[in-house]
Amino acid sequence: MAGSSPDTTQCSMNLLLSTVLLFLVLPDADQGQEICAALGRGDGRHQCCNMTVEQEERGDRTLSPDLPRRCPELGHSGSPACACLRERWLRLLQVVGPVLHSHPAGVKVLLLNVSRAVTWDVLIAFSPTEHPRMLNVTEKAKAGKIHLPREVFRSLSSQTVRVVVTVLNIPQLGMFQEVNQTGQVLDNTVVGITVGETSISGLRDPVQLTFTHGQLPHGITPQCVFWDPSKGQAGGWSSSGCDTELRNKGTRCSCDHLTFFTLLLNPALDGSTAQALIAVATAGCGVAMAFSVFTIAFCIFFRCRFRSEETLRINLGLHVNLVGSLFLLNLAFLLNSRLSTGTMPGTCKVLGGFTHYCLLCCFTWTALEGCHLYLLFVKVLGTYIRHYLVKLCLLGWGFPALVVGVAGAIGSYGECSIQTMDHQVIAHLCWITSKHLLVHYITNCGYFGLIFLFNTAVFGVVIQKSCHLQGTGVVQRDHRAWKVALVAMGLFCLLGATWALAFLTHGTSSAAMLYLFTILNSLQGIFIFIWLVVLYYPKVKETVGSFSHIIRHDKATTASQD
Questions:
Q1: SS3 letters across 443-508
Q2: What is the chain's percent helix, strand, coil content, to nearest 5?
Q3: What is the three-class DSSP state of 208?
Q4: pLDDT for residue 525
Q5: Residues in the chain, pLDDT under 70
Q6: CA separation for the pair 49, 73 (Å, rounded)
Q7: What was the pLDDT predicted at 513?
Q8: Cβ(68)–Cβ(174) under 8 Å?
């Protein structure tokens, strides 16, 4: 030993420390015991990458930080042996990694010893290209930042606590790759945090990780996640216990436990889901257009048959305009989905503006239906306004034209493409461009939000009015007021609630809601046709009588009060 070189001595010391930690820490760790307990069923010996994995860890040298490179099966196999080996490797990475002289490619480690009586929060900077380092309280991190609250240390029994922070590169390690993962990990970087030798969860003051990034592409949603070894076949990403807060130059993750974290960038739609939704919407729009024609013919027929019933004629006239706007919207969607690819810029602007106009017309006529119900049930003025239906038509078709004209004048329309994180184009549309998203939020989201709130209030008033009339004995036995209320509820549900589903189609778990939104709204023409036939045929006069009776009663009551 007298002739041993300093490097040989250092390597021997590293090997000794690694072996000691393996024997002292791994066999006694509670974490992962349930996973490795599965090896006890059967013969007690299992294979993973031609390596024997036993239920009790023996501390052999096959378990090392570079194990994933020597065992590609480790990252995706669902066998009990590989699951147990994965769990041991994750603990090994943070327990033994800091004392090694050199780390495998894709692993950067910071080791800190923090007093249990620390009076300040611990700040650590991390980056995909540099080793993590401790920050001063006044120092600002140029890349990512970890904020460990002092509560983490005060809850432990040891006077001095070891903190291990590892920054891992997914492609170099070949780990942390979920099966059928649709989102992309930011910078392919995973950050692991360990405090002490026990699992920490349920923090009242959460640990905060700030991931820095530029402006994300349109349609991309960041999500704070951690690696859950028990999810799926070989582990997966989970957001339980983590909150996501999108900030000016990055995203802040607040989590109530310590483990391996990352920021997942989820596309609003993946390719297969987008194609399926387009196919469903195309088929639904085609069928709905046919039923819209039937509905318009149905309404015109009854308008001609009952010319003396002004209330019925106005109701059916409103329905004709609403269904007509739905017909145009379905037509615009079909034209857009077929002609948007490869069209001239000018043609695409016109097509985008036409689609936007049809959508706003549909929203506006939904609002006018609500206004009509309000006038009919509350003010009792619907049939006493001169040229009432003509004025509604001017507003229903004219106001959207004004909005689209202003939006077109500022260049809001053009080709819009939906892309995945690897810039693969899912679909082309002629619509409002990404440079004018404010136009979309104001004219579509904001406009419909106000209409939906108004129609909800009108629906409540109509129900209250119907209950009042029935309670005073105006409507008896046949419950005709409730039948009229059913008309209002049908309009509210079919024309308001279905569009309101758009506000729920956000995030990675919204695929089912997207399908529901697409199906219900593309089939609106069918629903309205069935609804009108059931309510207006064959007892049209009964419904008219109910409307007229309520209106005459309110008019007489108003006159007597005056």
A1: HHHHHHHHHHHHHHHHHHHHHHHHHHHHHCCCCCCCCHHHHHHHHHHHHHHHHHHHHHHHHHCCCC
A2: 55, 20, 30
A3: strand
A4: 76
A5: 1-45, 50, 52-66, 75, 78, 93-104, 141, 218-219, 268-271, 379-384, 418-426, 466, 469-495, 504-511, 536-562
A6: 6
A7: 74
A8: yes
Whether the CB-CB separation of 177 and 137 falls below 8 Å is answered with: no
Q: In the prediction, which pLDDT does 211 show?
A: 93
Rounded Cα distance between 305 and 308, Å, is 9
The three state secondary structure string of 182-236 is CCEEHHHEEEEEEECCCCCECCCCCEEEEEECCCCCCCEEEEEEEEECCCCCCCE
Place of tokens 């196999």: 77
CB atoms within 10 A of CB 402: 10
Residue 379 DSSP class: I
Closest CA relative to residue 178, chosen from 105, 215, 232, 122: 232
Closest by CA to 257, choosing from 235, 242, 237, 236, is 242
Take residue 120 and report the two structure tokens written for it.
Answer: 């300040």
Per-residue model confidence (pLDDT) at position 218: 65
Q: Rounded CA gap, 268 and 505, in Å?
A: 9
Q: How far is it, in rounded angstroms, from Cα 320 to Cα 297?
A: 9
CA angle 40, 176, 230 (to 5 degrees): 40
Tell me phi and psi for residue 471, to 5 degrees. -70, -30
pTM: 0.58
b/e 236-275 (16+ beta carbons within 10 angstroms → b): bbbbebbebeeeeebbbbbbbbbbbbbbbbbbbbbbebbe
Residue 87 and residue 260: Cα distance in Å, rounded?
12
- Going by C-alpha positions, the residue among 164, 207, 184 that lies closest to residue 263 is 184
User: Are 520 and 445 within 8 A, CB to CB?
Assistant: no
Report yes or no: 547 and 372 within 8 Å, Cβ to Cβ.
no
Q: Is the dihedral of CA 119, 133, 100, 92 positive or negative?
A: positive
Residue 260 in tokens: 């391996």
CA atoms within 13 A on the CB side of 205: 10
CB atoms within 10 A of CB 368: 19
Tally DSSP H helices, then E strands, for the chain.
Answer: 17, 17
| Residue 412 identity | S
The three-class DSSP label of residue 199 is coil
Angle of helix 345-374 relative to helix 388-409, nearest 10 degrees, comes to 150
Helix (H) or strand (E) holding 525: helix 524-536
SS3 sequence of 388-448: HHHHHHHHHHHHHHHHHHHHHHCCCEEEEEEECCCCCEEEEEEEECHHHHHHHHHHHHHHH
- How many residues are present in the chain? 562
Residue 482 has a CB neighbour count (10 Å cut-off) of 16
Nearest CA to 158 out of 200, 115, 199 is that of 115
Q: Does residue 288 contact residue 335 with C-beta atoms inside 8 Å?
A: no
Matching residue, tokens 């419950």: 479
Rounded Cα distance, 172 and 363, in Å: 52
C-alpha to C-alpha distance for 144 and 123, rounded to whole angstroms: 11
